[in-house]
Amino acid sequence: MKSFTIEDINAFINGEVVGTTTNKITGLEQIQKANKNQATFIGNRKFAALWKDSKASLAIVNDNLDIEPGDNRVLIKVKNADLAMAKLLESFTPETPHFETEIHPSATVDKSAKIGSGSRVGAGSYIGKDVVLGNNVTIYPNVTILDDTTIGDHTTVWSGTIIRERSVIGAHCIFHNNVSIGADGFGYRPSDDGRGLVKIPHIGNVVIGNGVEIGANSCVDRGKFSSTILGDGCKIDNLVQIAHNCVLGRSCIMAGSSGLAGSVTLGDGVIIGGSASIKDHTTIHSGATVGAGSGVMNDVAAGKTVLGYPAVDSREMLKQWVALRKLAR
Questions:
Q1: CA-closest candidate to residue 189, choices 175, 201, 200
Q2: C-alpha span between 210 and 218 (Å, rounded)
Q3: Where are the beta strands (DSSP E) in 13-171?
Q4: Which of 5, 209, 282, 303 is deepest in the core (most CB within 10 A)?
């Protein structure tokens, strides 16, 4: 078990220490569940009142909050408690699963594949023809990487993930369990005789930039032509669908159960709330936000926040909800 003094912890986050304690810190926990050997954080005024009844010995708090440490307890005041806690979580992160050997004997690696220095391939994984793994890539057990795929340095792929042929993956990416990269897009047309559906082939690929993280059970489909593209720094939650020929700019965020239909374009820094749905061939420009549960039918201007189904300017939608509530009384 890792153990830190208050001085150790403040060295990580560089805040202002208020109060003293004799307790060592061995973990992190929510403010209402923490014990005397755990730290918590308070980044919002509404949680400040919970501090007096908390058993935690340490709280990382925003420096604009008026809180007293109490007996044998400490506050470390910082500008942003959320960011400070993120740094602290890195210090408490447990060791990752152990690899006995760099390439497990039960893994199947095609003789044409190129595996970079320090890269590891877990049990039962398959590395196909002409696959290229950069340096220090980690492939956990039971991953499939098909032909002509390239993966950049320091990327981690967790168990159950399938990366289809010709995918191009950047460096420092993380794919969580059961991610699907490069499956066929969803495309059908009525047959000439009107008695069935004809499948439309998808012959493109997926291109993913550097520092992209994709949550468990999310899907990124290959392009019908050319590529489905995720820009550098995009963060994708669990159970997200990104359809064929979508293009995401840099540092976009998509929350759980949201989805993009085919050929959607997101600018830089777009935020898509949970369970939001975006119509095909729609453009959401840089800095825009789509509220949770919304359905976007038309393009969204840069920096705008939209809400509702169909999605409109958030202020307009809130006015509509207030009016409906008054009518219902």
A1: 200
A2: 18
A3: 16-19, 27-28, 38-42, 58-62, 74-78, 108-109, 114-115, 120-121, 126-127, 132-133, 138-139, 144-145, 150-151, 156-157, 162-163, 168-169
A4: 209
| DSSP state string for 193-225 | TSSSEEEPP---EEEE-TT-EE-TT-EEEPPSS
The answer for residues whose C-beta is within 8 angstroms of residue 47's C-beta and 6 or more apart is: 31
According to DSSP, the β-strands at 174-175 and 156-157 are parallel
pLDDT digits (tens, 9 = 90+) for 145-162: 999 999 999 999 999 999
Q: How many whole angstroms separate alpha carbon 41 and alpha carbon 45? A: 11
The separation between CA 87 and the C-alpha centre of its own chain, rounded to angstroms, equals: 17
Which of 320, 297, 300 is closest to 309 using CA atoms?
A: 297
pLDDT surpassing 80 at residue 1: no
| Active-site option among 202, 244, 281, 285 | 244
The DSSP secondary structure of 129-173, one letter per residue, reads: TT-EE-TT-EE-SS-EE-TT-EE-TT-EE-TT-EE-TT-EE-SS-
Q: CA-based angle 194:198:199, to the nearest 5?
A: 160
Tokens encoding 222 = 């290959």
Spatial distance between the Cα atoms of 72 and 21, rounded to a whole number of angstroms: 4
Phi, psi of 211 (to 5 degrees): 70, 25
Residue 249: both structure tokens together: 């700019």
Q: How far apart are CA 37 and CA 24, in angstroms?
A: 6
Q: What is residue 227's predicted lDDT score, i.e. its pLDDT?
A: 98
Q: Which residue pairs from 288-295 have beta carbons closer than 8 angstroms and sit at least 24 positions apart in sequence?
A: 292/255
- At 51 the pLDDT is 97
Among this protein's residues, is 98 annotated catalytic?
A: no
pTM, two decimal places = 0.93
88 band by pLDDT with thresholds 50, 70 and 90:
very high
